Amino acid sequence: MLIKWIITALLFVILYQLFHALFVMLSGAEKSKNMSKILGKRVFFSLITMLVITLSSQLGLFTFNEQPVSKAHIQKQTNIAKQHPQNANTKPQPEMQNVD
Question: Cβ atoms within 10 A of the Cβ of 56, count?
């Protein structure tokens, strides 16, 4: 349970660094070096967070949700269509013509 609190705290630090860099960016261009340092810290904390998640998962401190088991779908084809004779002639056959 403690590891989840640590991960949550790291995510809040990442959000704080992101908004802090936003306010520095909006305040003026003379602090651009300061903003890049803040964004660099955010990248560093993101890397630390990913490492903590990966290592704690591998050590068994917490487990991810299991993936659902997928079943193979078997499609059965049935021939219910009536087959018609193929003919290139479009003129009706003599036995099919109406005689008036």
Answer: 17
Beta carbons of 62 and 3 less than 8 angstroms apart: yes
Q: How far is CA 71 from CA 68, 74, 75, 88, in A?
A: 10, 9, 12, 45
Per-residue pLDDT tens for 32-79? Answer: 677 788 888 899 999 999 999 999 989 988 888 887 787 777 777 777
Q: How far, in Å, CA of 9 to CA of 20, rounded?
A: 16
| Mean per-residue pLDDT over the chain, rounded | 81
* Cα distance between residue 98 and residue 86, in whole Å: 22
